[in-house]
Amino acid sequence: MVFQQDNAAVHNARLTNDFFQENNVALLDHPACSPDLNPIEKVWGWMAWEVYKNRDQFQTMDALLEAIFTTWTKVPTNLLFLGL
């Protein structure tokens, strides 16, 4: 069995690594925080930039949520497929 995971330190618990070793699970060597393992990160980054691009300070949670949902409908489709 082969398992692929992000090798960031926060995802490399000793308990998990011991389990893999004891059960002969091979880990694929992969760089930490690799964007191709989690392409949605590009979308979240774009959305945060878009929501706050005018340096808006939202006065209510409803106003912030409205900005988030409006921005979600504007996510460029090409952003969803980058790196896949």
TrEMBL record:
Identification of the protein by name: Tc1-like transposase DDE domain-containing protein
Transmembrane segments annotated in the record for this chain: none
GO MF terms held by the record: nucleic acid binding
InterPro entries recorded: RNaseH_sf (IPR036397), Tc1-like_DDE_dom (IPR038717)
Pfam family, one: DDE_3
Domain Tc1-like transposase DDE span(s) in chain numbering: 6-64
